[in-house]
Design a protein that fits this description.
The complex is a heterotrimer of chains A (about 170), B (about 500) and C (about 240).
Chain A: H1 8-32, H2 36-57, H3 71-75, H4 84-115, H5 120-134, H6 140-144, H7 156-165
Chain B: H1 6-24, H2 26-50, E1 55-58, E2 69-72, H3 74-89, H4 99-117, H5 121-140, H6 145-176, H7 181-186, H8 188-191, H9 194-208, H10 218-226, H11 229-254, H12 260-281, H13 285-305, H14 308-332, H15 346-349, H16 351-365, H17 371-386, H18 389-417, H19 432-447, H20 449-463, H21 466-474, H22 485-492
Antiparallel strand pairs in B: 1-2
Helix pairs in contact in B: 1-2, 1-4, 2-3, 2-4, 3-4, 4-5, 5-6, 5-11, 6-9, 6-10, 9-11, 10-13, 11-13, 11-14, 12-13, 12-18, 13-14, 13-18, 14-16, 14-17, 14-19, 14-20, 16-18, 16-19, 17-18
Chain C: H1 2-22, H2 33-44, H3 50-58, H4 60-81, H5 83-92, H6 100-122, H7 131-148, H8 156-179, H9 203-236
Helix pairs in contact in C: 2-3, 3-4, 4-8, 4-9, 5-9, 6-7, 7-9, 8-9
The chains are: A mainly alpha (about 170), B mainly alpha (about 500), C mainly alpha (about 240).
């Protein structure tokens, strides 16, 4: 039954570490990247890792998919099947992921239109300027920060123009 | 008892159909939402009154360990009553272009009720995600550039939380092979190891994003200062409490007598320190309240980390108090969209709003006769009752945080009542009506302190009783279905 | 500084997760509810695809929550993008001429994809497939013309109609069970002969509702995103 000539234990290790690795890659991507579109992609990778982990939770060696077909439909033998619950859960969580990613893309489109940038730091800086303006607070906190490290937000119009020229 | 599923089915049904209702009749679409919320409240109250002891209902007619079950106890039904009530108060009645926002609010109401009632780990996750997506939509509903950016950052942090929570659930499933909370309670010995605890930590971090838990609360100040005040009030008042409630359910049932409670304590203390000191530094009211709500939620987590009835009692009291006070304070900021310095002398122009602010602020600090004092008192006596050095440290932090909290809130109150040198043109909140309602609730809680206290103690005793939870779930009454011999037998082992 | 913090954070998290992976007990994971479902699903639900009996039977409420999440995401997306105003403007801009190859292949593929999607939805209780998979294919069928002919308007009213009624149908089937004295979302009707098209009670109906709902939501989402991007492309020129 086993299509891969491999020690079951070793394969299981590989699967677990693979799933955890995907999660780590995804989370590291979200934390380390500055491009907000890439952050969403990294989030998708991390979600794939979580889903893979769920599938592995229901996996067992030599078992078949939990669908009665052909012979099994006559005998109704369900003893040699993998756990169907994690598969249903994965179906659910994939759809949840799709919804969240679509919403994230819509937000990215709007952010790019308004702020003209996809860089998280610039978006954050523009947002803080807007928040401070609407709260009628002087930008005291950023004035206290050491200069130089934090790029000053460029005004939206010029950046929008630049983005269009590219 | 089965009729409580209407609290989920009905708002979802109407939300799906609302665009079509709107297309046929605008007036019908405007009144449908509040009507549904009223029906939800009515149905929750009916079940609440009829409830003598906790009941578990099996969805789809499949008995609990296998199917999804809802756990109906007084705490769950109390939340199920509060959800539509608070939403009715914060409903966007006066705006015209808000069909989609109303739809999303109805979805939020359904998801919140589901989260309060659910007794299944993965079902909790699904409803939590529904709440998440709805709150992203509400956060962006302002259509300002800054609210899009804030909603996106919120979505990213929340998305990370989703992944962590999903990982935690997968870990628990590999260890136990089940998702039902009661059965996890029976199998809790399998979770009382490093792997099980790390699964709890992952779920705590994941769901804790909405509960404004310490390392994952970067979104709080941004979203609350860019979203509309009604949205902030809902997120800070309701959604955060429901997330805490879900965590507490998992903790009480599946992680009894393990170190998981200490994890809550650590995150709670960190949240208190971070939230209160950030609030102290804040320059405008919205951000001040946002940070202070992080601190308050830290206190709530701290309360729930005390094992047993004492912790549950303190936690529920803190939770309900915060649920009344914080939305009111956020509503107050609707017209106060300015730095704290410009509030000078504002009390002269709008005395009622200023007086209400002082009332809520004093209750939040915990000045003796007000309900906030009693809630904090319960928390402190609970901490002292533990008689362990860790809890004493937490107590010390709590004391210091209270002083800080008092300092910044009283600073605002003094500013409000100080004489202004220039004629301030600032008119305070226009909808003092809703805020006065919150104040009435707060003061009536003060008047009925004794019966309320004993009722809350009753609720706390019931919901901190793990054996009762498990027994309830496995003695399901409605709609007989085939017995699942395997699952129940293995569960009882 | 910020990069260093981020690096430390992700490194710590990686370490934590790898330690968790190291701790896994080897061998098959315990299977409690899974085993019970494998034993009883044929008797209780009567679907040949046991995953379907979990998705629509044992955990039907999760599926309801799931389509609600898709609906919320679609609503929130149109809230963010402001779809209706956009499509009005987009429909004013004339449709571009489609290339004949693209156009005819779309016309060729559209009915094929539609049939395939509906087949997968209807056979969801028998074969690996179902409402979600089929719904995605349906959405693809409706999205294909948008890809081939940018700027083409899509019928938002129709989408709203389908998504409203299919979602309502799912809940109403569940409520029918409730009001007939059973539990919410309890499977209705006789199970029939397992493996036949008309079997598994109300599950195929539920899956048709899910399929149409998913198809409508995803087409709405894609049309929104495509509409705004083609609109932005117009604006740039």
């Amino acid at each position: 039954m086993n299509p891969i000539e491999m020690n079951p234990v070793a394969l299981q290790w590989l699967l677990y570490f693979g799933a955890m690795g995907l999660i780590v890659i995804g989370i590291a991507g979200v934390v380390l990247h500055q491009n907000i579109f890439r952050m969403v992609l990294a989030l998708a990778i991390a979600e794939a890792g979580g889903n893979l982990l769920l599938v592995i939770a229901g996996f067992r060696f030599g078992a078949v998919a939990p669908i009665l077909q052909d012979d099994a439909l006559q005998t109704l033998n369900t003893s040699n099947m993998v756990d169907p619950v994690p598969q249903a859960m994965v179906l659910t969580s994939i759809v949840i992921g799709v919804g969240i990613q679509a919403l994230a893309l819509a937000l990215i489109i709007r952010i790019h239109q308004r702020y003209g940038t996809l860089n998280m730091r610039e978006v954050h800086a523009c947002m803080m300027v807007d928040i401070n303006k609407s709260a009628a607070v002087d930008d005291l906190l950023s004035a206290q920060q050491p200069r130089g490290r934090r790029p000053l937000p460029s005004p939206p119009e010029s950046t929008a123009k630049r983005a269009n020229n590219e | 008892m089965n009729s409580i599923v209407l609290n989920i089915a009905l708002p979802l049904l109407v939300a799906f159909l609302l665009p079509l209702i709107h297309a046929s009749s605008r007036i019908a679409a405007r009144i449908t939402g509040p009507l549904v919320l009223m029906v939800m409240m009515w149905s929750a109250v009916i079940v609440f009154k009829a409830l003598e002891y906790p009941v578990s209902i099996a969805l789809g007619g499949f008995l609990p360990p296998v199917g999804v079950s809802f756990h109906l106890d007084q705490l769950a039904l109390l939340m199920a009553t509060i959800i539509p009530l608070l939403m009715l108060l914060l409903w966007p009645y006066q705006y015209e272009q808000n069909l989609r926002e109303q739809t999303v609010l109805l979805l939020l109401a359904a998801a919140s009720s589901g989260l309060a009632l659910s007794g299944d780990l993965f079902n909790i996750y699904v409803f939590y995600e529904l709440i998440s997506v709805a709150s992203f939509g509400l956060a962006a509903a302002n259509r300002q550039a800054s609210s899009f950016a804030a909603a996106f950052r919120y979505l990213l942090i929340s998305g990370l939380g989703t992944v962590l929570a999903l990982t935690g659930i997968a870990l628990i499933y590999t260890q136990t092979g089940t998702l039902n909370l009661a059965q996890l309670g029976l199998l809790s010995s399998r979770l009382d190891n490093p792997l099980g605890l790390s699964a709890f930590a992952l779920i705590l971090l994941g769901i804790g994003v909405k509960a404004e838990i310490f390392p994952l609360n970067g979104w709080v100040a941004e979203v609350y200062s860019t979203a509309s005040t009604r949205t902030s009030a809902l997120l800070a008042g309701l959604v955060s409490k429901l997330a805490v409630l879900a965590i507490v359910r998992i903790l009480v049932v599946a992680y009894d007598d393990s170190e998981a409670g200490l994890m809550l304590l650590v995150f709670g203390v960190l949240g208190i320190i971070w939230g209160e000191f950030s609030a102290w530094r804040a320059q405008d009211l919205k951000r001040m309240f946002a940070y202070s709500s992080i601190g308050q939620l830290g206190m709530i987590l701290l309360a729930f980390s005390i094992p047993g009835e004492a912790g549950m009692f303190a936690g529920i009291a803190m939770m309900l108090h915060h649920l009344v006070v914080k939305p009111a304070l956020f509503l107050l900021t609707e017209k106060w969209n300015h730095g704290t310095d410009s509030l000078r002398g504002a009390a002269r122009l709008s005395p009622l709003a200023a007086a209400l602010f002082v009332l809520f602020a004093l209750s939040l600090i915990g000045v003796p006769p007000l309900p906030g004092f009693w809630a904090k008192m319960l928390l402190m006596s609970g901490l002292v009752g533990m008689d362990t050095s860790v809890y004493y440290i937490a107590l010390a932090v709590l004391m210091i945080a209270t002083v800080v909290e008092a300092q910044y809130l009283i600073r605002i109150a003094v500013t409000l009542y100080s004489a202004s040198d220039r004629s301030s043109e600032l008119r305070l909140a226009s909808n003092t009506g809703v805020m006065s309602l919150f104040a009435v609730v707060l003061l009536s809680a003060l008047l009925t302190l004794t019966p309320l206290g004993s009722k809350l103690y009753h609720i706390a005793a019931e919901s901190s009783n793990r054996a009762l939870y498990i027994r309830t779930t496995f003695n399901v009454n409605p709609t007989p279905v085939l017995e699942h011999k395997n699952a129940t037998q293995e569960a009882s082992l | 500084m910020r990069n260093l913090t981020a690096l430390l954070f992700s490194g710590g998290l990686a370490f934590l997760l790898m330690v968790i992976a190291w701790q896994f007990t080897l061998g098959d994971a315990p299977m409690l509810i899974g085993a019970a479902i494998l034993d009883n699903a044929v008797k209780e639900v009567g679907a040949a695809n046991l995953v379907t009996s979990v998705v629509l039977g044992y955990r039907g409420i999760d599926t309801l929550g799931e389509i609600a999440i898709l609906f919320t995401a679609a609503t929130a997306t149109s809230m963010v993008l402001g779809s209706f105003a956009m499509t009005d403007e987009a429909s004013e801009t004339e449709q571009r001429e489609d290339g004949s190859i693209l156009g005819s292949s779309v016309r060729l593929f559209f009915p094929l994809l539609l049939t395939l999607g509906l087949y997968i939805i209807v056979h969801g209780h028998l074969t690996p497939g179902g409402g979600f998979q089929g719904g995605v294919i349906l959405a693809g069928a409706f999205f294909l013309p948008l890809l081939a002919i940018p700027g083409r308007s899509i019928n938002h009213g129709g989408i709203a109609l389908v998504e409203g009624f299919s979602g309502a149908a799912f809940i109403l089937i569940g409520l029918t069970a409730l009001f007939s004295g059973q539990a919410f979302l309890q499977p209705l009707f006789e199970h029939g002969v397992i493996g036949h098209l008309f079997s598994a009670g109300s599950l195929p109906l539920l899956y048709i509702a899910v399929g149409l709902k998913v198809g409508a939501e995803l087409s709405g989402l894609l049309a929104n995103l495509a509409g705004i991007s083609s609109h932005a492309a117009e604006a740039e020129k």
